[in-house]
Each structure stands twice: as C-alpha cells, then as structure tokens.
Design a protein that fits this description.
Blueprint (H helix, E strand, L loop, with lengths): L14 E8 L3 E8 L9 E8 L4 E5 L4 E3 L7 E9 L4 E11 L4 E10 L4 E10 L8 E10 L2 E10 L4 H5 L4 E8 L10 E3 L5 E7 L8 H10 L4
Parallel strand pairs: 2-4, 3-6, 4-7, 5-7, 6-8, 7-9, 8-10
Antiparallel strand pairs: 1-2, 9-12, 10-11, 12-14, 13-14
C-alpha cells in the first residue's frame, strides 16, 4: 500500500495496514487512519495486489469524512489487481463528503480469469443537516473479457437532487467472478456475470445493504 497525506509532508502515511489474521494463502487486514482524513491537499493512494490463488479480506474500523476544504481539494485513489484465481473482499465504511469539501475519488480494478472481487461502499452527501460537498467519483472494473463496470459520477449541492432524487446516501455492493445470489431487489446485472446492488436513502439505515453484503461475501467464500 502507498499513500501520502498533505502537501506540507508528502511522505507521511495516512493509512496504516494492520494485519489481523493470516495463514499461508489468506490474510485479513484493517486499514487504520493515522490522522484526520480528508483535509485540503490530502492525496490518498491505495494499491492492493492479490497474487494468483490467494485471498485478502480488507476491513475499515470506521468511516472517512472529507471536511470543509475552503476552496482546496483532495484525492482518494484506489488501484486493485487480482491475479488468476485470487479473491479480494473489501468491506468499506461510509465515505462522508461534508459541505465545502471537494474530492476526486477513483477506483480501478484489474481482474484476471477466475478471480473474485466483492466490494462494499457507501457515499454520504453531507453530515447531518448539511448540504453536500462536491465529489467526482469514477469506477473502472476490467476483467479478462473486457469492461465489467465503468462509471463516472459528479455530485454536488446543485446536481444531487436531480441525480439522486433528494437522497443523500448511496450504498453499493459489487460482486464479480462468483456465483450470483438470487436476490433481485436493488440489483443490476452487469457484463460478464457480475452484479451491482445499489440502494438510495435519505438516512444511512434507509440505504443499508448489510444483508446483501453478507450474501456477497458468502458467494466469495467468506464467513
């Protein structure tokens, strides 16, 4: 994993990977923030590579808040590479874009044949009683047969109502490369047999996909 925090100290680590458990083919890692995230000038880069035939489970102890940046900007970039037959599950916690924040957020995944990816995320537009900040979010998931999911979404105080119908929480679960559960609610079938579940809500509990996430993790071989 590689990351930077602020322009004044470009070598400081913002996320510390803590090994929770492991054996010869599997590992469980918690991404622990070492300070406040995100502030103006922060740039977080996360690179994860899972070798062929191995498994990695990533958890987060808490959510991330992008604070008011007073005209500044921040970035959060994730790059995932899965070898042949690898498994990666990432149980992301809420990513909150406060009023006044401006964040560029990207996820890019490259998945070899036979690999499995299960990814959970929740985007929250503004803290309680706030207008949303601005987030430009891009997602690109490619398998050996071609694109699975390509998404480019910009949301701010002007566009949130039109794009999300007045909702401020968008939760998603993506499952690629595993047998597909039969639950059809909130489900979008993608290319290559992948599935995206997405749910909107005004409050976090209204957009909850906890049951779907447990099902997706089970399909990926998780407990």
């Amino acid at each position: 994993m590689r990351s930077t925090v602020t322009l004044s100290d470009p070598t400081a680590s913002s996320l510390r990977p803590v090994l929770v458990d492991h054996d010869h083919t599997c590992a469980r890692i918690s991404l622990v923030p070492e300070g406040a995230l995100l502030l103006a000038g922060d740039r977080v880069e996360v690179d994860i590579a899972v070798d062929a035939g191995t498994r990695l489970d990533v958890v987060e102890p808490g959510g991330t808040v992008a604070f008011d940046m007073r005209g500044g900007r921040a970035r959060w970039d994730v790059r995932l590479t899965l070898g042949r037959g690898a498994v990666l599950t990432w149980a992301g916690e809420p990513f909150v874009v406060s009023a006044g924040a401006a964040v560029q957020r990207s996820t890019r995944a490259r998945i070899r044949d036979g690999a499995v990816l299960a990814l959970r995320e929740s985007l929250v537009l503004g803290r309680h009683g706030e207008e949303p900040g601005r987030v430009h979010q891009t997602t690109e998931v490619l398998s050996g047969s071609g694109p699975v999911l390509v998404e480019d979404l910009t949301i701010d105080a002007l566009t949130a109502r039109a794009l999300l119908g007045g909702h401020r929480v968008m939760s998603s679960v993506l499952l690629v490369g595993a047998p597909q559960p039969g639950d059809a609610e909130h489900r979008y079938d993608l290319e290559g047999g992948a599935v995206l579940w997405r749910r909107l809500g005004v409050q976090a509990h209204e957009a909850d996909l906890a049951t779907v996430w447990q099902t997706a993790r089970g399909a990926a071989g998780g407990l």
